[in-house]
Amino acid sequence: MNGLVHILEFINLFIFTGLSGLHVYWALGGTWALKGAIPEAFSEGFFEAEKKPGFVLATWIVAIGLLGFGLISANSIRFESLIGEQFRNYALLGMSIIFLLRTVGDFKTFGLFGKRTDHIFSQRDRRIYVPLCLYLGLSSLVLYFYA
Question: What is the predicted pLDDT for the residue at 137?
């Protein structure tokens, strides 16, 4: 089981740092892959990032949070010595809950039970975001129990 745990830690670190980097890119004004990243119901005017300081601030916060999730996931680099093993365990459990709830969705706009299928976000959500969140939720749960 120890080998699987190390593999999950590094996969999660890679995914979280990659997603963090993508959010930094968006916060700095990049637009690649932005159009399908936010549900249409919430994205009115969000794509003009330079005109929406709230979007930029929220994107920076998400980027920092995702980087933190990556570091928390990677127990092999001994990050828990800075934050404490108990905090790390609670954080992993919290991450698992967050991503599993995101997988289920809100029963309208996003997630497994989202009813929208006619927008770019809905299509990406079904193909990319839901499976990714399911993986991150389950892998965080495995790390909670075995890391």
Answer: 97
